[in-house]
Amino acid sequence: MDNYFIIHGSFGSPFSNWFSWLHDFLETDGKQVYTPDFPTGVGYQNYENWSNLFKVYLNLGLINENTTIIAHSIAPVFVSKFLTENKVKVKKLIFVCGFNNYLGIDKDYDAVNESMYFDNLQDVKQYANEIICFYSDNDPYVKYEAEKEFADAVTTKQIIMPNAGHINAEMGYDTFEEIVSYL
User: Of 27, 51, 65, 79, which one has the greatest count of Cβ atoms within 10 A?
Assistant: First the structure.
């Protein structure tokens, strides 16, 4: 059975931005949807803690070749690293505002994001049938070039959303209609 994971970013929650809307949209359509609440904050958010939580779902058999993962901000690189390290194949990855090896947002974000980064990002292509990247031309947190570099490394299907910022609630994205046709 197909299932879906919606993964929040740094200092985020599964209830912020467009995540609740997408969860309800998918669930109303009869889909099985998981929205893990990963630890956030300096000292709590790191690759090891996020990986330990995600492994619970993996060990339950819920992350598999029928899984679509939708990930925002730092979550795309976390998911890429997790799948690559654990050699787990999924059906589809939809990444929103993903980046890798980018520092300079601010010291707290840099501190919690840095452990997520990894070399050989392109290896994630072996672990998904399809990878789609959404990003904006005016993200106030992550430079356009960093998001484009991430997308270029993992996929050829890129959707650039003009003036969408970090594609979050701050920019009016309590819903995210554009993503629906890619689910």
Answer: 79
- What pLDDT, in 10s, does the model give residues 99-118? 999 988 899 999 999 999 99
Domain tally, the chain: 1
Angle at 101 between CA 178 and CA 23, to 5 degrees: 30
The overall pTM is greater than 0.90 = yes
**Which residues span the domain enclosing 95?**
3-182
CATH label of the domain that carries residue 27? 3.40.50.1820
- Cα separation, 44 vs 47, whole angstroms: 10
